[in-house]
C-alpha cells in the first residue's frame, strides 16, 4: 500500500502498549478547515486493512463536508480491536492524547464502535472531541439527522425521477435497521411509503416491526435485493453495491445511509447503465456530520435540522448536473465537492494584514 501516493496530508500511527491502543488517524484535507471525521473501533484483520479503511473514509469525509457546505476538511480515525472487549477508559484517554497532540488539525467524533459516552471520555484528554452526550452540552445521537438527511436525498431523487418529492405509494427496501435505518423507516412510513426490511440482527427487525406492523421483513439482503421495490436503501456497512447486487436490483433509485456503498469505481457507471438513479452516499448521509459540526457553535437541534434540510436542494443540483454533463451522479457530486475545495480552500492562502 503506497500511503504517500494516496493524496493525504497526514497519516498518524498511534500506539500505547500499556492500554493496548493501536490506532491510525488519517487527515485527507484541511483546505476548508480542520479535518472532522469519526473514530471507528473495529477488529480489523490486519494493520493494512485498518490503514486502507482510514484512508478511504477520511477522503470520503473531505468530500462529504465540502458538499454539505461546511468549513471543515476531512479526516478519520480507526482503532484496531473489538470494542466489546478491548475498549477501556485508559485506551480511550490514550487515544484522546494523540488527538490533542495534532493541535486541532483533526476533530474526532463517533463512528462504528464508538458512542457519545466514549467521546466524553476522549474529551477528558482533548479539546477536539465532538459528538458528545447532551448532558455535557453535546449534540447527542447523530443518527437522527443522518436518517433525516437520507430522507431528504430520497425525496429529491423521487422529484427527479417521478416528478414529486414524496415516497408515498412507493416501496422502499431498507437493508439494515439499526439506528439510522430505523429512524429512516419512521420517516418513510409517515410519508406513506411501503417498507420492506432486513437486518443481520433479528432483534432489530423485531423492534422495528413492533413499531411499524405495516412493514415487511425478509430473511437476508440477498432476498431483499430481489424483492420488488422502487427504492433501495443500503443502511449497513460499505460495499453494498457490488456487481451482483446491481445486476439484480429492481429499484429505480438507490439512496441509503451506509458509507462507501460502491464496491469499486466502476459501480456508479453500472448503475447508470441500468437506468438506476444513484444518490451519492456521502451527500445524503451528511446530516450526522452537520449535527456534530453544529456542536462547535453551542448545539441547536433546530439549526442543525434546518441545515440538513438543504441536502434536498444539493441533491437536486447533483442530479441536474449529472444529466447536463452526461455523467453519473457520483461523478457530478465529486466535481462539485472538488470545486468547492479548490475555490474556497484557496482563501486560506490569502493572508490578511495583522
UniProtKB/TrEMBL annotation:
- Gene Ontology MF term list: nucleotide binding; oxidoreductase activity, acting on the CH-NH2 group of donors, NAD or NADP as acceptor
Give one Pfam family. Answer: ELFV_dehydrog_N
GO BP terms in the entry: amino acid metabolic process
Q: What is its EC number?
A: 1.4.1.-
Q: Which SUPFAM superfamilies match?
A: Aminoacid dehydrogenase-like, N-terminal domain, NAD(P)-binding Rossmann-fold domains
Q: Which residues form the Glutamate/phenylalanine/leucine/valine/L-tryptophan dehydrogenase C-terminal domain?
A: 140-349
UniProtKB keywords: NAD, Nucleotide-binding, Oxidoreductase
Entry's SMART domains? ELFV_dehydrog
Identify the catalytic residues. 76
Question: Where does the chain bind NAD(+)?
Answer: 176-181
Which family would the database say this protein is a member of? Belongs to the Glu/Leu/Phe/Val dehydrogenases family.
What PANTHER family does the database record attribute to this sequence? LEUCINE DEHYDROGENASE, VALINE DEHYDROGENASE
* Designated name of the protein: Valine dehydrogenase
Task: Specify the species.
Answer: Modestobacter italicus (strain DSM 44449 / CECT 9708 / BC 501)
Name the gene that codes for it.
vdh
Amino acid at each position: 500500500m503506497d500511503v504517500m501516493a494516496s493524496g493525504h496530508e497526514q497519516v498518524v500511527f498511534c500506539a500505547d502498549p500499556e492500554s493496548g491502543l493501536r490506532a491510525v488517524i488519517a487527515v485527507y484535507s484541511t483546505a476548508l478547515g480542520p479535518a472532522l471525521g469519526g473514530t471507528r473501533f473495529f477488529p480489523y484483520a490486519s494493520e493494512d486493512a485498518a490503514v486502507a479503511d482510514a484512508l478511504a473514509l477520511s477522503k470520503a469525509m473531505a468530500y462529504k463536508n465540502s458538499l454539505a457546505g461546511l468549513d471543515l476538511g476531512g479526516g478519520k480515525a480507526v482503532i484496531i480491536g473489538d470494542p466489546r472487549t478491548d475498549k477501556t477508559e485508559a485506551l480511550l484517554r490514550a487515544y484522546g492524547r494523540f488527538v490533542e497532540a495534532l493541535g486541532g488539525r483533526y476533530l474526532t467524533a463517533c463512528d462504528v464502535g464508538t458512542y457519545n459516552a466514549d467521546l466524553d471520555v476522549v474529551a477528558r484528554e482533548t479539546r477536539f472531541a465532538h459528538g458528545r452526550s447532551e448532558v455535557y452540552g453535546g449534540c447527542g445521537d447523530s443518527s437522527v439527522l443522518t436518517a433525516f438527511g437520507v430522507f431528504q436525498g430520497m425525496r429529491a431523487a423521487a422529484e427527479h425521477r417521478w416528478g414529486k418529492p414524496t415516497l408515498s405509494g412507493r416501496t422502499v427496501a431498507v437493508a439494515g435497521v439499526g439506528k439510522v435505518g430505523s429512524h429512516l423507516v419512521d420517516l418513510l412510513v409517515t410519508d406513506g411509503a411501503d417498507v420492506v426490511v432486513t437486518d443481520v440482527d433479528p432483534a432489530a427487525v423485531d423492534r422495528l416491526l413492533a413499531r411499524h406492523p405495516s412493514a415487511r421483513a425478509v430473511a437476508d439482503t440477498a432476498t431483499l435485493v430481489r424483492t420488488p421495490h422502487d427504492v433501495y436503501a443500503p443502511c449497513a456497512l460499505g460495499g453494498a453495491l457490488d456487481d451482483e447486487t446491481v445486476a439484480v436490483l429492481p429499484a429505480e433509485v438507490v439512496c441509503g445511509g451506509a458509507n462507501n456503498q460502491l464496491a469499486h469505481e466502476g459501480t456508479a457507471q453500472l448503475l447508470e447503465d441500468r437506468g438506476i438513479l444513484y444518490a451519492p452516499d456521502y451527500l445524503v448521509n451528511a446530516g450526522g456530520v452537520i449535527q456534530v459540526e453544529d456542536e462547535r457553535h453551542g448545539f441547536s437541534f433546530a439549526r442543525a435540522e434546518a441545515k440538513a434540510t438543504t441536502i434536498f436542494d444539493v441533491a437536486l443540483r447533483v442530479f441536474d448536473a449529472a444529466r447536463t454533463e452526461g455523467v453519473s451522479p457520483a461523478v457530478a457530486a465529486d466535481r462539485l465537492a472538488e470545486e468547492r475545495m479548490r475555490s474556497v480552500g484557496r482563501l486560506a492562502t490569502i493572508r490578511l494584514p495583522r
